[in-house]
């Protein structure tokens, strides 16, 4: 991963040397603009993922391609992998101050900036992808998210979804709550807090370090995403057991963020193009994970002899109870978190009631 | 509904009288085009739904708005409700011959034209919305759909999804398989064939006639969509019991269709805008249904005293077995149906295996 990043940086330097100037004004066939018919915009988009990482990293690349096509080249978006322009976890600050016009990341990374951000990716025992998108776009979520990011001069947009993730990779079996005690697991955010209350030791590590940490025994377990991504990271070489379901991230929605000042300089048609391309990518990423995860899982099980394990029911029940406690505590930290949690919780109760008669009832009837 | 349509027609006539000419060429602030900087396109989009019907009908209106905004007014799409320009079930022919440049409908209505079309909306015990979108965009579905529609000079695009529908409205309880015998139910397509094999009598009726047919006892039961739409139709006034889950349509994906010749006349940027706007609407409709169905269900139950009923498990099991028989028979009818069914079936087995560990396992763990 590190080698790849270095290679990426070298290529980047070459590209920059041959590069186009930002905001250049030149006529090209198929170009057009609102106020100025030949104005082109050259934007930077920084991400928290390795360049072109499957799903997470290819999402913003597809966004850039759609924007280029729809704008007939008037808005060019150059995508940077983590560390190429700014480190993975400095995306928020970089876009906020205008170093880049856009970013692609996960809102829960910004809990240190604003705690309520944790509700806008995925929370333990929260919403699956379909439910999350409903909350964001028709359940009041987006309005709250905009309010939350406004003080940072940022506009948030939904930016893809992984679906329900896997429970993670383990080098010991989890047969009871006792087995969680002392467990050193890489699990960030709210899931980590839940594990801590269950007696475990959550560890935060960037994706690129998971393999070594697991292999050397520095950690006993790690979660990442799902088979499609986990296979790419080779985690099966460092752990025996692959647990399900991913109770801690049941439908992680990624985010695009746009610098508000930069957005305001765009003519209305390019603004609509940015918004609509992000919406299309939000679905496209979920479609890709949905179609590809199982092929990767089959490869993991059949070729690499990975052993699938279900979390025991009493473990899941305990983790669920602890999750409710953690969320209530987060919500009590500040008024905005309280407001977001109230909206999230009311929506969740509603959608769960309906999905128990439809999505869930159907999946169960189909497989019975 | 008929009165509404007549009112719609009157408004339409007025609009046409004041109207713009198709293909007019005039400069407007914010306009732009590829080959010809002032060329505008005026397209017609015919639909199978009442004008502005919640979800199904507002989807194409949103599409038109997105296209207008992103193209800075260069592509204007005028949406027609069912019967305004062509009847609901003549959308396919109208777009095929170029009477309208686009249509919005459901592929399963065109089984008389090409039987394999039935696989591109929803099939009994098939895929839910998330799974369907995965098959279409990353599982080979779209390529087959394009092949299927090519002889009709049509390009298909995903155009929205209702999610798992409800099982329908009944005036008698379904306690056993015996209760399906002789049941006169409005249930179109493959679901109807399944009911027939279970001893029932499927009836096909347009949406606008459901209420009267149910109230007069001409039918014993009807399916429609889900609470959000069913409440709008007032079906609770004509039936006592509301059954779940909707085994017959577990994730109905609507369709946009574009006349291939008309599409080819568009510059590349407008082509990309049409494709991307449809993708955004495909998710937007599902988001809307997901967020709004439960509020409508609460109103049905609490305000209108609707009685919710689950299909008995043995009834669902029998319907599932019969569904597999019906699908296999449809697939044996022609080589293209065979090819589509083979792709659908292989994908379904794969995605079910993965979702049993993730989406389904999570929903069950969350509600346990």
Brief sketch in words of this structure:
The structure is a homodimer of 368-residue chains. The first copy, chain A, is an alpha/beta fold and 368 residues long.
Description of the molecule:
The structure is a homodimer of 368-residue chains. Chain A is of the alpha/beta class. Helix content of chain A is 46%, strand content 14%. Chain A has helices spanning 2-17, 58-70, 91-96, 129-138, 141-149, 189-197, 210-215, 227-233, 260-265, 268-303, 313-331, 335-357, 359-367; strands at residues 41-47, 75-80, 102-105, 154-161, 168-170, 184-186, 201-203, 221-222, 241-244, 253-259, 307-310. The longest helix of chain A has 36 residues, at 268-303. The model of chain A is unreliable at 1-35 (pLDDT under 50). At the A-B interface, helix 2, helix 4, helix 10, helix 11 and helix 12 of A face helix 2, helix 4, helix 10, helix 11 and helix 12 of B.
Number of domains of chain A: 2
Mean pLDDT of chain A: 90
Number of beta-strand segments of chain A: 11
Give, in order, the helices and strands of chain A.
HEHEHEHHEEEHEHEHEEHHEHHH
State the CATH superfamily name of the largest domain in chain A: Bacterial extracellular solute-binding protein, family 7
| Count of helical stretches of chain A | 13
Provide the low-confidence segments of chain A as ranges: 1-35
The global form of chain A is: globular
How would a textbook summarize the main sheet of chain A? 6 strands, mixed
Helix % of chain A is 40-55%
Largest interface: A-B, 85 and 87 residues
């Amino acid at each position: 991963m590190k080698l790849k990043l270095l290679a990426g940086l070298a290529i980047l330097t070459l590209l920059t040397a041959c590069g186009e100037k930002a905001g250049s004004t030149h006529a090209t066939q198929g170009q057009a603009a609102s106020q100025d018919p030949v104005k082109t915009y050259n934007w930077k988009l920084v991400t928290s993922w390795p360049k072109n990482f499957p799903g997470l990293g290819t999402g913003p690349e597809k966004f850039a391609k759609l924007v280029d096509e729809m704008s007939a080249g008037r808005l060019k978006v150059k995508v940077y992998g983590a560390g190429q322009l700014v480190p993975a976890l400095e995306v928020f600050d970089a876009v906020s101050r205008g170093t880049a016009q856009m970013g692609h990341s996960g809102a829960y990374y910004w809990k240190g900036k604003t705690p309520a951000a944790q509700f806008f990716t995925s929370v333990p025992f929260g919403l699956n992808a379909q439910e999350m998108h409903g909350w964001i776009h028709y359940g009041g979520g987006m309005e709250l998210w905009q309010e939350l990011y406004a003080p940072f001069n940022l506009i948030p947009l939904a930016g893809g979804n992984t679906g329900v993730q896997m429970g993670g990779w383990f080098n010991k079996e989890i047969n009871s709550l006792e087995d969680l005690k002392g467990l050193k697991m890489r699990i960030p955010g709210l899931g980590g807090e839940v594990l801590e209350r269950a007696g475990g030791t959550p560890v935060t590590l960037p994706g690129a370090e998971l393999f070594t940490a697991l292999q050397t025994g520095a950690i006993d377990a790690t979660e990442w995403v799902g088979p499609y991504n986990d296979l790419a990271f080779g985690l099966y070489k460092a752990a025996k057991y692959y647990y399900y379901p991913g109770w801690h991230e049941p439908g992680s929605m990624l985010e695009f963020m746009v610098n508000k000042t930069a957005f305001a300089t765009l003519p209305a048609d390019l603004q609509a193009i940015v918004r609509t391309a992000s919406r299309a990518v939000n679905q496209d990423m979920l479609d890709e994970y949905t179609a590809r995860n199982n092929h990767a899982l089959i490869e993991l099980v059949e070729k690499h002899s990975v052993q699938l394990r279900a979390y025991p029911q009493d473990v899941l029940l305990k983790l669920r109870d602890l999750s409710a406690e953690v969320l209530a505590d987060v919500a009590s930290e500040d008024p905005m978190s309280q407001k977001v949690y109230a909206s999230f919780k009311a929506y969740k109760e509603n959608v769960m009631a309906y999905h128990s008669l439809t999505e869930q009832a159907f999946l169960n009837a189909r497989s019975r």
